[in-house]
Amino acid sequence: MLTNIISIALGAILINNFIFSQFLGICPFLGCSSKVDTATGMGIAVVFVMGLASAICWVVDNYLLVPLGLEFLETLAFILVIASLVQFVEMFLKKSVPSLYAALGIYLPLITTNCAVLGVVLLNVQNTYNFLESVVYGITGGLGFMLAIVLFASVRERIRFAEYPECFEGFPICLVSAGLLALAFMGFSGMQIF
Amino acid sequence: MKTILFSILVLSVMGALFGAVLAFASKIFHVETDPREAAVRECLAGANCGGCGYPGCDGYAKAVAAGEAPCNKCVAGGPEAAAKIAEIMGVANDTAEKMLAFVPCSGSAGIAEARFNYSGPVDCRAAMLFGGKSSKLCTFACIGLGNCARACQFDAMHVENGVAKVDRSKCVGCGACVEACPKNIVRLIPESQKIMPACGNRDKGAQVMKICKVGCIGCMKCQRECPADAITVVNNLAQVDLDKCVQCGHCADICPRHIIDYFG
Question: What is the reported pTM?
Answer without folding.
Answer: 0.55
